Structures are given as C-alpha cells and as structure tokens.
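Researcher: Next entry in the queue.
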Amino acid sequence: MSRRTVNALNAAAVGPYSHATWAGDLLFCSGQTPLDPGTGKLVDGNVADQIRQCFDNQFQVLEAAGLGSDDVVSVNVYLTDMGDFGQMNEIYATRFSSPYPARTTIGCASLPLGARIEIGLTAKRQS
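Model: Structure for this entry, 127 residues:
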C-alpha cells in the first residue's frame, strides 16, 4: 500500500514527516506547533497567539485535503503549562461548533522549538 499524504503550502514542517496521511476515509494530521509558515519560526506573542496559529496551521492542512472543521472527529492538545488550559478551551470553542469533536488534552514537559502548545487531529471525509 502506498501512502496518500497531504502537505499544505501554508503550514510549516520541522522534520521528515507529512502534514497528514489518509487511511481510507480518515485523515490523520500530524501535530502542528505555532510556526509562522512565512518564516518557519514560532509566532511572537502570548499563548493565545500560539494557540490560534496551531489551529490556523491545522485548518490549512484540512483545506489542502478538501476538508474543514466540521469533518474533525478527534483533537489532541499538548500544553507545556496546564495553566493555559482555559485560554486554549476558549479559542477551541471558536474554531469548532457543537457537537464538538472528541478531545484529549495532555500536559507535557516540552515541545519542539520551545512551543507552548501542539495540536494534532483526525478528520473523516463525509460519504
């Protein structure tokens, strides 16, 4: 089986991976850190700016795959400070509509390039 991958022009990658891979009707998206796709560097600003950039990057990947936020079935959020959970939750609620995707939020010691947040997700093509 050959991999069917998706790479978005407006999302950065910091390693040897695809932005997403199809498995049947499921799209497994790699985690996105808050990299500015124009510079390849972390966005300047507070954690809210980093959260928004992660979602912007993920939604670019979804768009490149022909999908949108309503196709997302599961989200994994990684925070280096669980004190940022409230801000993440507020911004998350503006990016999805009810019924919301399933979600896991994990506190972790560190993320690539010093990011405070990373977001991965799974989406399903509607039949």
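Model: Residues 12 and 39 are 9 Å apart (CA to CA).
Researcher: Noted, moving on.
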